[in-house]
Amino acid sequence: MNGQTGTFTIDIHHVTRVEGHGSIRIDVRQGVVEEVKLCIVEANRFFESFVRGMAPEEIPWVVGRICGICCVGHQLAATKAVENALGLAVSPQTVLLRKMLNESQFLQSHILHVYFLAVPDFVGAPSVLPLIKTHPEVVKRALRLKKLANDYTAVLGGRTLHPMANTLRGWRRLPDLDELERIRQRLAAALPDLLETVAIVRTLRLPDFERETEFVSLTHPDEYALYDGAVRGSDSGQPVPVADYRQVTNEFTMPHSTTRWSRWHRESYAVGALARVNNNVDQLHPEARTVAETLGLRVPCFNPYMNNVAQVVEIVHCAHHSLSLLETVLDGGLVEEDIGFQPGPGRGVGAVEVPRGILFHEYAFDAQGRCCDANAVIPTSQNINNIERDMQALVPRMLPHLSRNELTLHLEMLLRAYDPCISCSVHMLEVDYVE
Amino acid sequence: MVGLGSRLGRDDAVGLLLAEALARDPPPGVTVRLREAADALTLAQDLLELCGPVLFVDAAALDAPPGDWRLWPESALALKRHAGAVSTHGLGLAESLAIARDLGFSGTVHLFGVAPFDLTPGSTPSAALTRRLPGLLEALRAALNRLTGAS
User: Which of B36, B49, B87 sits opposite A19 (nearest CB)?
Assistant: First the structure.
C-alpha cells in the first residue's frame, strides 16, 4: 500500500548504522505531509566545559575523545586552535605529517561508511553481516582496506584510536621510516582494491532526488583543502578566514534537537564530502577526478545521496595524495624538532576538514596559560538543519509513490548518506536570558 | 597471542599488560599482538591474517574470585552477542569471530580470561591486579606451552 492517503505517523526511533541516536518523525493528515522532523535526542557532552582550567598541551588529547571515528580531526583542529592562540609556529615537516595523519583518518572513516554502513542499503541487506555470505570477497576487501587505513594512522600517530604522537608544535615521537615504507608499499598495492570499490559503487542505484543548497568547506589556492584553508560557501565568492567562523555557522537551537543548528547565506547549508567535491573539484587528484566522472558525479551536484559517491572519490584522492606525501617524507627523512613553548594568554581558532565536513575549534587562555573558554562546532551539527530540510522536500515527493516501509528506508538512507556522527554533534549553546 | 582491552578501564587493561610483558620474552613460535580498544572489524581482519591458532587474553566475567584466570576453548565460550547493535560500535569479540569464521578463518581459538578487581574509569590498574600480574604471566606462559605443545 502506498502512503498517499489517510492520516498516519511514521516514527523511526534510533536510526541504525549511524553514530549516535536520532529519530525521524513524519505526520501525514489526509494524505498531506504536515510535519517532518529529525529529532536529536542525545545528551549534551560538556567537553567545552571540562577543558576549562587545563594546560594548552592537554586540550588536543582530551577533545580527541569527543569521537572515536574523528579523533584525529578533533585533535588536529584543537592543536591548530591552541597554536594560533599562543602564536606557535610549526615546521613544514609537522604540516606534512599532520596532513598524512588526517588523510589516514579520511581513509578509515570513508571506507567504514561506504562499505559497512551505506552499501547494505543499496543491496537490500539490513547490515554488512548478511553480505559476508553473499559477497564474501567484497567484505574481505573492505576489511583489508579498513585495516590498512587503521595501520596508517597507527604508524603516524602511535595508535589507531586516539593517537598521541601529534602535539603542539610537532611530534612527540616521530614515525619509523621503515614502517612508513611498508605502509607506502601496502597503499600502492591496495590501488586495485580501490578500483574494485569504484566498480561496486558504480552498480549502485542511488535515489533520484535533488534539493539545491549551499555547500560549505575549506578552500585553499594550492591544494584540495583538507588540512588548511579559508571557509568557502558556494553561495558567495569571497572565502572567510577561519577565525571568523561564527559568521559562517550562525548557530541556533530548535526545540526538538539537542544539537545546535547552523545556517549561512540561505536557510541551511551542507558540509562533508559532497560539499568539498562541489567546491574544490578541480584540485582533486587526477585519478579521483576520473573516478568522479566514472561514477557520474558532476558538479554542482545537489543529490545528497551522492555524498556516498563523493566519499569514494575522496578515498581515491587520499590514497594517491598520501602516496605522494609518503614519498616526500621517505625521500627527505624526518628530523627531531624542538616542541617546547611558553604558555600564556591568547585566543585562537583552528579548522580542518574531517570526513563529515568542516570542523571548528576555538580556545582562549588566561594569563596563567590555563584554558578559560572553549567552543567546538562539529560537522554533523552544521548538517542537521540541511538534512531535515532535505527530508521535508523528499517526503511529499516520494509519498505518492512509495509504501511507508519504502519511505522509511529512503529517509534512513538519506540520513546515513550524510554519515552523521550524532553524539559528536551534541553540545551546549550558551543562552543569555534577558529578564 | 592477542592482548585485548582498554587502558582507561583500570583492570580492563590486563590483556594489554600481559601481552606487553610476554612480548619482552615471547615463547618460541608465539607472535604477540596488542589490540587496544580494537574495533570488531579490525579484529576480524587480524584473524584472517593470522590464519593459525589464536589465544585471546582479556578481562572476563568469570564465576571466580577477582584475580583468578580461566582458559577456555572457543566451543566453551559464552561470548555476548550484539545482534541488536545499531552501529559497528556495538560489535564485539563474538562478531569478530563470526565474521572471520564466515570468511574462512579456520584456526583454533582459546581465551585466557582474567577476573578483574576494578573496571571503573581510570588509567592505572588496581593495586590488587598489579600484585597478581607476575603469577598471571606465569599461568599465561604455561597455557601457551600447553597449547603449542611445547611442554
Answer: B87
